[in-house]
Structures are given as structure tokens and as C-alpha cells.
Write a structure and sequence with these properties.
With 130 residues, this protein is of the alpha/beta class. Helices cover 42% and strands 20% of the residues. Helix 1 (15-27) packs across helix 5 (111-125). The N and C termini lie far apart (29 Å).
């Protein structure tokens, strides 16, 4: 029986960061859906929300729709969806705008920090009684 990879949606408008994350997650055995805008992230969640197991999103995605909005939409579709935020400047807003049980990774970061955050949240959501 074939092992199915965990599908992670990554929303990052900086191409170089998005590609590094995509490659790193794939090397770690994850399947990746990489998008560059909030609109693409929302559309991906609507189309493949049942398959997506975790969301990694930048806060600033180049439009009025932010990573905060993308995460709220993800949680409307799947209340237990693990969410990891990445930001260089918006961390002060996380306690107010971030969804509960999420992790914020400040930029600059190593891709391994983001993968570790996703793994922690996935493990927590798979723990009985959580």
C-alpha cells in the first residue's frame, strides 16, 4: 500500500522563499501546493481543502487580503487545520489576528524551523484527546 504524503499549502509571495520552502518540505516527505497570492491560497483551499493537512502562510501577500484572512478561511473549512505564519514585521499582531493554536515563525528563518512548526502542530492534532 502506497504511503500518502501530507499535503501542505504554502502561500508566499517571495518566489525565492517559496521555492526553498517547497524543496525543503518535499525533501522531508511532504507534498506541497505552492501559491504566491492570497487569492490563489483561498482558491486552493476551496478546491482542495479536504486534502490540505496544513497551511504555511506569509502575512503580507501583496494585496488587501492577508495571511491572517487565509488562515481564518482555512479554519472555517477545517477547524483543526495546523497554521504556521511567517512574517518579517507583523508578529505583534499575531495574538490578536492569528488563529488559535497556530505558530508564528519570524523572518529570516531556516526552512527547518517552518517544517518543525508544521510537524509539531500535526502531531498535536493527531494526539487523542486534543
Amino acid at each position: 500500500m502506497e504511503k500518502t504524503s501530507v499535503l501542505v499549502l504554502i502561500a508566499e509571495d517571495q518566489t525565492d522563499i517559496g521555492e526553498v520552502l517547497k524543496d525543503s518540505f518535499e525533501e522531508g516527505g511532504y507534498a506541497v501546493l505552492l501559491v504566491a497570492t492570497a487569492a490563489e491560497a483561498l482558491a486552493s483551499l476551496d478546491a482542495r481543502g479536504e486534502e490540505v493537512r496544513a497551511l504555511v502562510t506569509d502575512i503580507k501577500l501583496g494585496s488587501s487580503t492577508t495571511g491572517w484572512d487565509v488562515a481564518r478561511h482555512a479554519r472555517e473549512l477545517k477547524p483543526e487545520m495546523p497554521v504556521v505564519y511567517m512574517t518579517g514585521s507583523e508578529s505583534n499582531d499575531w495574538p490578536v489576528l492569528g488563529v488559535p493554536n497556530s505558530i508564528l515563525v519570524p523572518k529570516p528563518f531556516a526552512a527547518s524551523q517552518v517544517i518543525t512548526a508544521v510537524s509539531q502542530l500535526l502531531n498535536a492534532s493527531n494526539t487523542p484527546g486534543s
